[in-house]
Amino acid sequence: MNQEKLFTAFVYGITITGLISICYALVFLETEGLNGSSIFLIIGALLITSRLTLSLPRSNSHLSFSDTMIFFAFVFFTGELAILLAVLEISVGCFFLKTKGVVFERHALMFNVFSVATGTGATLLVWKSLPFLGLSNDYMSTSNLVTSLGILALAQFAFISSLASSYYALKRGQGFWSTWKREGFSISMTQIAGAGLAGIAYKLISYGDVLTIFISLTILGVAYLNYKQLFRDINESIEQAEQAEREKTEIARAKAEEVEEHARQLRSLLEKEEEISRDLRQSKQDLEYAAFHDNLTDLPNRAYLIERLNLLLQLGPDVARRYYVLFLDLSRFKNINDSLGHTIGDEVLRVVALRLRRCLRDEDTIARLGGDEFAIILNDLSSINEAKSYAFRIYDHLTQPYVIQGNKIFSDLYIGIAPFDHEQLKPEDILRDADIAMHSAKEENNSVAVFDKQTRSKYLEYIRLEGDLRYAIEKNELALHYQPLISLKGGELIGFEGLLRWFHSELGFVSPGLFIPISEDNGSIIPLTKWVLREACSQLQQWREISDEHDDLVISVNISGRHLADKSLIYDVQEALDETGLPARCLKLEITESTAMENAERTIETLNEVSNLGVKLSIDDFGTGYSSLSYLHRLPFDTLKIDRSFVLNVGENGEDSGILQTIVSLTKNLKKEVVAEGIETEKQLSLLRDLGCDYGQGYLFSKPLPSSEMETLLYQKKAWLPDPDPASESDRLPSEISEIPHRYA
Question: Is the pTM of this model over 0.85?
Answer without folding.
Answer: no
